[in-house]
Amino acid sequence: MSTNESSVSGCRSEVRPINSTCSQRELSITASAISMTVGIFSNSLALFILVKSYNRIRIKSRASFVLYASSLVVTDLLGHLIIGSLVIFVYSSHKNWETFDPHRIICSFFGACMVFFGLSPLFLGCAMAVERYIGITRPIFHSTVLAPRHMKRLLGLLWLLAALVAVLPVLLLRSYKVQSSRSFCFFYMEEPKDWLDVFLPLLFSMLGLLALLLSIVCNTLTSCALLQAKLCRKNHCRSTSYHIEMICQLLAIMLVSCVCWGPLLIHVIILSTSAKDEPAVVTLLMVVRMATWNQILDPWVYILLRRAVLRKLFMLFQCCWLSKSHKLNNWQCSTLRSSVETSNSGGGPPDCRCPDAAIKSIT
């Protein structure tokens, strides 16, 4: 009897971890599928809006900006589609990399996609910030030198640079490694063998931080130039409103990139140059998940921060403010009228003059 009880208790103890593991795996697959679906929907909607806006554009500088913005949204869309599919496949395969990827082909492709779709949005955001800075502060140079064909070549070079950094570990025979969480592949950062294992993640982080820093500087200088032009010129110009819309979008993209990608880039530098410990693995997984939100939040910048939406929000705010001020004026007039009636109640008919005359009578 005791043997049966011990066997039953042993079975229960074996079943519980299996059930918890299965439920955790199903939860991870569901979360990944929802994240991928939301990202694809958001980027598709933003791409539709940008393409529609690109067909109506008559200003060459704005056409270059929308071209880069559309390229950024397409990159985020492909990143969500490819990386999300890989994550769902890994979780559905019980994270058993030795079974479904014995030659580390999928792991190398996974790591290269992580690096490429991570650096490309940062490079494109930096190029958009530099292009806007030149277009506003040096308009003649922008119109003569930065032709549309040059901007398209620069776009291809940025994608090529990100792809080169992504395949560099494979070319140097330092393939990507399955991380301790066994849910994704990334640089070899735990116990590096030589200087290459330190150089590759540092190159990724330094390029990303340099792009973020250059975006911050250019967006700050461009905003100051626009503010100065707005203060010096009182009349409203349509091109200035276009510039303000683009700068608002650039500032939002820069803020999203700093919040989402900044922790991962800094954490990779810390992991590559310091001693490793177990809590760092959990932190790495957390900052990687934060970075994936960049591809979800980027398209909503173009969906929400448009002139039509901003104009409606401003009109809504103005209507609410005017209604509150109108109620306040009515309350003041009613209070003033009651005070006038009280002062005239001692004798004679009530004074039915306007509020200005009533104020003069009180004073």
Question: How does this model look, in words?
Answer:
The protein is an all-alpha fold. It has one domain (27-231, 245-319): Rhodopsin 7-helix transmembrane proteins (Rhopdopsin 7-helix transmembrane proteins, Up-down Bundle), CATH 1.20.1070.10. The chain has helices spanning 2-55, 60-92, 97-100, 105-137, 139-144, 148-171, 195-232, 238-273, 278-292, 294-304, 307-343, 355-362; strands at 177-178, 185-186. The chain has a two-stranded antiparallel ribbon. α1 (2-55) runs parallel beside α10 (294-304), α4 (105-137) runs antiparallel to α8 (238-273) and α8 (238-273) packs antiparallel against α9. It is globular, with a radius of gyration of 30 Å. The model is unreliable at 1-18 and 346-363 (pLDDT under 50).
What's the shape? globular
Largest sheet: 2 strands, antiparallel
Neighbour order of strands in the largest sheet: 1-2
Mean pLDDT, as a whole number? 78
Would you count the extended β strands for me? 2
Which fold does the CATH topology refer to? Rhopdopsin 7-helix transmembrane proteins
User: What is the count of distinct domains?
Assistant: 1
Query: What structural category characterises the helix and strand content?
Result: mainly alpha
CATH architecture: Up-down Bundle
The whole-angstrom Rg is 30 Å
End-to-end CA span: 102 Å
Low-confidence stretches: 1-18, 346-363
The CATH H-level homologous superfamily: Rhodopsin 7-helix transmembrane proteins
